Amino acid sequence: MAASRIVIENCAIATVDANDTEYASGYVVVADNLIESVGAGSAPTGLENVVRRVDGTGHLLTPGLVNTHHHFYQWITRGLATDHNLFNWLVALYPTWARIDESMARAAAQGSLAMMARGGVTTAMDHHYVYPRGSGDLSGAIIGAASETGVRFTLARGSMDRGESDGGLPPDFAVESLDDALAATEATVDRYHDDSFDAMTQIAVAPCSPFSVSTELMRQGAELARRKGVRLHTHGSETVEEEQFCKELFGMGPTDYFESTGWLGSDVWMAHCVHMNDSDIAAFARTGTGVAHCPSSNARLGAGIARVPDMLKAGVPVGLGVDGTASNESGELHTELRNALLVNRLGAHREAALTARQALRLGTHGGAQVLGRADQIGSIEAGKLADLVLWKLDTLAHSSIADPVVALILGAAAPVTLSLVGGRTVVEDNHLTTVDEDAVARSTRTEARRLARITAAG
Question: What are the pLDDT digits (tens) for 312-339?
Answer without folding.
Answer: 999 999 999 999 999 999 999 999 999 9
